[in-house]
Every structure is written in structure tokens, then in C-alpha cells.
């Protein structure tokens, strides 16, 4: 029987033959994650964007900023919203129509991570207290779904936020938006620039041109468990076979942001989770380097 037919008819037996040799069908050892590449500024019509590839898995994130009235209960706080789309072209199993449960779960998880890791100080997105605040909409399009979409999508969202430029805008005495206000560029939280823009030192009444201040860079690693073995960064075919799938999100200081279990039929034991967290810590520097190289290259050019 040909290997392709055997793989299709007996996927678990086919996979176990590789695991017995501590390797996988794509040639990677069990503990090796796929290569990561990051590019920013790839969508010129967006305020910020990033394209991330982890192996074949490809996610494109584009951020758009628009002023909107803040919530009455939070008059000086902006909003970051994330949507994830799995278009039919991304995988053979993808279908057109309503958002899938997987895409909705991924978007919710990313929003939770952005909040829990304090990636963006939402108070710095205030234009004028109680009148206008920035609403940041980040749309993620998974161009190729080959497993680990949370890993790629989260990295792309953080990249799009870091790449985003906040337009110059002010609010006049009538409460109308005046675009192009302010005479100097600043980063959010630059008190001197805020004072210059307002004339009174009130940082909440004007937002001159700036970049979104990304305070932390959480990154995710997905790990599967099969026959008692940990499989780091499984691809799409491997994820479908895993008994348990765990995603671990870490920050640059080594702190754990969250652990989630997006798939699998078995609960992950405490010892398994500890090993997954250790694997995520080992993975973080390489992934962060790819992220930093993309932005350093832009700054140099």
C-alpha cells in the first residue's frame, strides 16, 4: 500500500511509526517548533498591519482606528476589538458563511490576552474625556491554516498594534473633531507633548500624531500530547490527531499570561502543563527575535 493511502486510511498507525523514532512526518523532532517570520506595514490602507508566518500557517492582521464616544461607565478609556476570519482559501475544511467556532474562540482569546497582559494602556487611547476615544479594530485573516492559528494570529495582532499610527485629531469647543491638530508628534504618555497640544497640560483632551504604545509582547505556543509524548507546535494534520492540545501565552519577562486548552479529548495533567510552560519559555526568545528584527529593519531603513 502506498504511503499516502496508508496515511489516509490509518492516520494514527502512520503517525505512531514516526513517534517511535522521536520524529514527525515533516522531519522535525518532537520538541522543535516551526520557523517564524514577521513583516510589518504590509497593508498600506490600514493604520497598522503585520504578516506572520509560522511554518505554512500565515496570518495577516490589519488595524484601523476610528474615534467613537466612550462607554458612559469608562469615559476616558478606548477600546481594542479583534476579529478573526478563516476564509475558504485557508484550508480544505474551511467553508464560506458565518464565522466558525474556532475563529470566534481565537478572537476572544486574543482579546483576553491583550487585556490580561496590559499590551495597550486603554486610557492612552482617550481623545477627550467623555466625548471621544479611539476604537481600534484589528481584523485578522488566516491566509493558510496549517495549525497553531492562535500563535500566528496573536503575534500578528501585537505586530499590527505596534505598527499602528494614531492620526492627529483634536476636539473643538463645539465637540467636533478637528483632524490634523497638534504641531508635534508624540508617543502616548508623553506629558510634555500633551501639554503643548492642549495648552493646559490636560493629557485627556487631545491626541496628536503618535504611535500606539505597546507595553508588552505576549506570544503563544501550541503544544499537543499524543501517546504520552509532547509534540511542540503541531501542524494542522497533527492537531487533528492529538489527544490534548494546550496553548501557552508568555510575556517577555517570563511571566505566564494564560494557558488554554483549545482541543483534544483528554485533560492535560499538571505535570504536562508544567512541561508545556517550560517549552513556551524556551520558544519565546526565538519568536521575539523574529518580531524585533521586522521592526528594527523598518527603523534602520
UniProtKB/TrEMBL annotation:
One of its GO terms (biological process) is rRNA catabolic process. Keywords: Cytoplasm, Exosome, Nucleus, RNA-binding, rRNA processing. It is found in: Cytoplasm; Nucleus, Nucleolus. Residues 33-167, 218-280 form the Exoribonuclease phosphorolytic domain. It comes from the Eukaryota. GO terms for molecular function: mRNA 3'-UTR AU-rich region binding. InterPro entries: ExoRNase_PH_dom1, ExoRNase_PH_dom2, ExoRNase_PH_dom2_sf, Exosome_comp_Rrp42_subfam, PNPase/RNase_PH_dom_sf, Ribosomal_Su5_D2-typ_SF, Rrp43. CDD domains: RNase_PH_RRP43. Residues 178-200 are annotated as: Disordered. GO terms for cellular component: cytoplasmic exosome (RNase complex); nuclear exosome (RNase complex); nucleolus. Residues 178-190 have a biased composition (Basic and acidic residues). Pfam families: RNase_PH, RNase_PH_C. Belongs to the RNase PH family. This is Ribosomal RNA-processing protein 43. It comes from Micromonas pusilla (strain CCMP1545) (Picoplanktonic green alga).
